[in-house]
Amino acid sequence: MQLTLGTDIGGTNTCTGVVDVSGKVIKKASFPTGDYVKAEDYADALARCVRELMAAVEADADEAIEWVGLGIGAPNGNQLSGCIEHAPNLNFKGIVPLADLLKTRLDLPVVKLTNDANAAAVGEKLYGAAKDFDNFIMVTLGTGLGSGIFVNGELVCGESGFAGELGHMTAIPNGRYCGFGRRGSLENYCSATGIRRTFFDMLAQRGGSTALDHLPIAEVTSKHISEAAEAGDAICQETMEYTGRLLGEALASTALVTAPGAFFFFGGPVQRGGVLMNTTRESFEEYLIPTYKNKIQLIESELPSGDAAILGASALAQLA
Amino acid sequence: MQLTLGTDIGGTNTCTGVVDVSGKVIKKASFPTGDYVKAEDYADALARCVRELMAAVEADADEAIEWVGLGIGAPNGNQLSGCIEHAPNLNFKGIVPLADLLKTRLDLPVVKLTNDANAAAVGEKLYGAAKDFDNFIMVTLGTGLGSGIFVNGELVCGESGFAGELGHMTAIPNGRYCGFGRRGSLENYCSATGIRRTFFDMLAQRGGSTALDHLPIAEVTSKHISEAAEAGDAICQETMEYTGRLLGEALASTALVTAPGAFFFFGGPVQRGGVLMNTTRESFEEYLIPTYKNKIQLIESELPSGDAAILGASALAQLA
């Protein structure tokens, strides 16, 4: 029996799962990422977690297990170098060669690392809705906007290992302030946090009341806004429409680079469908050049949301 | 001796050249593209031109010749299908399967077709400055803005065969009117025609006089504007600076998709260097995310401008 390991490194928890060839997660374990300040100590902890998982699965198995390898999805993960580079939400700063640290600690044929969105793209290709696509772009909407790109059946890493950073594209020249002293980046509009900012912008521009007026500002989430939009709240509807128009236009521009057969969407705001995805589709088709019109699909991810990150990471080891 | 054929289909002339393995054009012939209304007649004429060239080279040669194949660079050429699709500046409308029409007329192992900018990218990779790059983007500035993209050492065609259409990216939302009812596309700003339009915009906004005031409007070209900018004319300098700022910003956004190691530039406006390229470099670095800063080169094409299109087309047959 062939099994693969996938690790999802989040700012809060590090979750590892054992995945079978059909893409089913058969056992999971996790520990708090923040417990470790030094990268070596963290690597020790992750290696221990992986070894314990492997031992537990082997103890339960009634046939021999062939371990394919370990894939890791990490913030700011560089697939070419196997390093985590300057991740803002992790304790270990600078450039951490995590794939190498784990190779020396584990006896596995493959240890690979990439960033979360690339892992999602590989997962969608191997286990999800992108199986039949050689040219596609995965878009993940959460706190930010991430992306992973396939060209000619291969994940695009680029010369630096950091291809697929669509969240930093300029959506509105001289628009909202982002990090790095830059302005108007797509993820400041089209992400869970971007939706929140647009909601406040609509409140400023339109005035009046909304269905969310009873909520403390700190508690307003994109989910509240999305749900209020579906229930007919005008300000929330405009918020989601504005988000969709910008997202559709940005994806229509992105399509000009690699001419994908489809975009896949992962993450709460987009997977809830509704106003946001309807407007995104309309705007996308409107901005496409004639050559592309009605030829590029916008498809919701088929990865199970709870296990998507682990599946994506494990798929990376499979594709090695 | 291995020789390859390259054909450049322009709105005015169709030029074919015989290219040796070092990238030297050893013989050329051409005929007026507009003489033929039907695609079959045009294919007959092109096949005749190719056969005559081959015969002439064979007659002069003192060793046996192995013909590698024919590559064709055509407006709206689709490399996947070998068709010219809806080329606005050619007589034959609709979808013309030109590669197939020539395969049946010529006894060559390879006949391939692509668009002009893709051909330029392949030419730069095989014969020019891109030899050492597996991930790069070729940008061609002429009447419009074209591009050809390499990822992992391969030309990107995309699902439709029409990848690399950067000229249609939105540079200014709701900006200048383009074709197709779209607005604000990059090539309406960053191309020879775009530079002319910006010059008139600067005249409108700034008022005053320029070094080009003696010219009839119809005769003003991007070359005049570029030369006047270098000579110190304020309006022309601002025109070229505006062009460079937009081009740099657009390329910084494009870099986020495939993370190329370099952009290469072909065409009069960019290859003249000066204000335009200086401003493009400054703007590009300014808009890059920190991960990419000082890591992506902007390089002028090393293809000889007179033979670049033929070299690019012939390179396509070589890479087959």
Can you characterise this structure?
The structure is a homodimer of 320-residue chains. The first copy, chain A, is of the alpha/beta class and 320 residues long. Chain A folds into two domains: 2-128 and 306-319, Nucleotidyltransferase, domain 5, CATH 3.30.420.40; 136-300, Nucleotidyltransferase, domain 5 (2-Layer Sandwich). Helix content of chain A is 37%, strand content 22%. Chain A has helices at residues 39-60, 98-103, 116-127, 192-206, 222-230, 234-258, 268-271, 274-287, 308-319, and strands at residues 2-9, 13-20, 25-32, 66-74, 77-78, 83-85, 95-96, 111-115, 136-141, 145-151, 154-155, 262-266, 297-300. In chain A, the strands form three sheets. A five-stranded mixed β-sheet of chain A has the order 3-2-1-4-8. In chain A, strands 11-10-9-12-13 form a five-stranded mixed β-sheet. In chain A, strand 2 and strand 3 (25-32) form a beta hairpin. Chain A is globular, with a radius of gyration of 20 Å. Chain A starts with a strand and ends with a helix. The A-B interface holds A 85, 133-135, 149, 151-152, 154, 156-166, 168-170, 172-173, 180, 182, 249, 253-254, 256-261, 287, 289-292, 295-296 and B 85, 133-135, 149, 151-152, 154, 156-166, 168-170, 172-173, 180, 182, 249, 253-254, 256-261, 287, 289-292, 295-296.
Summarize this structure briefly:
Two copies of one chain form a homodimer. The first copy, chain A, is an alpha/beta fold.
Task: Summarize this structure as a short list of keywords or feature phrases.
homodimer; 320 residues; alpha/beta; Nucleotidyltransferase, domain 5; 2 domains; globular
